[in-house]
Amino acid sequence: MKILVTGATGFLGRCVVNNLLGRRVEHLRLVGRSVSPETIRSLQARFPQTAIEWRLGDLTDRAFAAQAAQGMELVYHLAAGMRGNGPEVIFNTAVGTDYLFAALREQPVKRVVLVSSFAVYGLTQASWNCRLAEDAPVELHPERRDPYTYAKLKQEQLLKKYALPGVIVRPGVIYGEGGPALSARVGLKVGPLFLHLGGRAWLPLTYVENCADAIVLAGLKEGIEGEVINVTDDELLRASQYRRRYSRHVARLRSVTVPYPLLLLLSSVLLWYHRVSHGQLPAVLTPYKVGAAWKHCRFDNSKAKKLLGWQPKVGLEEALQRTFQSLRQASS
Questions:
Q1: Residue 294 in contact with residue 151, Cβ under 8 Å?
Q2: E strand map for 59-150
Q3: Mean pLDDT to the nearest integer, 15-37
């Protein structure tokens, strides 16, 4: 089977590629914006049984997207815009996906695994301490939230538009070696201070290798076309617990805790001033965004286990040890 992985050189993409190579797949085409010659030589030497192709370029180039899609049977679509301003994030994610999916309609594709995000869920409308499963409503007003949410929802809509045989995987907070240090669900760094905004809310953590394993299985398991699957690990931490561990094992944070009710009040004041001042102060924090990012929820991974036969292979303590060690080395 000929397999395509987009975003293959990213944080999650590298783990998906290693997982597939560990399964001794026959043919793998990897799409990324850049890769070192050393990486290419290393993969080819370690996995001589797999025909590995590299396609370096940008999916927002229609011709490049068509070339990447040529002859592919199974597609793992991880590529998404993560940097730049709002329009750049949306453009790189949505337009690249549009061009790729349009090209895949002309190919012998048996399945597309679209890697989406928990960000698409409409938590602003959800009840406090709700249990978040795949049947939860998605965001009704992504434009009021952030460009990333808008772009991820657009990707899911494009999968339906082109009627491709697909499975949508929605990971929670992905962490691990080479990943971000602190999720916004824990808080935000403002100058020398870290504003701890997550309180005691549970984090939908998934270690990058566990997440990659679920994504790969979503492409290999038969009879699950059209499904949406959440991915979180069994062992989770509250935002406050993660912050304390990070501060103890990686770098000490000068932290100020902002309780959820106070955060809602502050965001209401900021939104009011944004309106009366005619935009002198940007509405970077609104009650809508606060509800979407920091409302307390619980998370359900039972569907991933049932449909995929998936179990997190790396436990919380080992995953945290690996992650924190990597972050310490990166900061030294």
A1: no
A2: 74-77, 111-115, 130-132
A3: 94
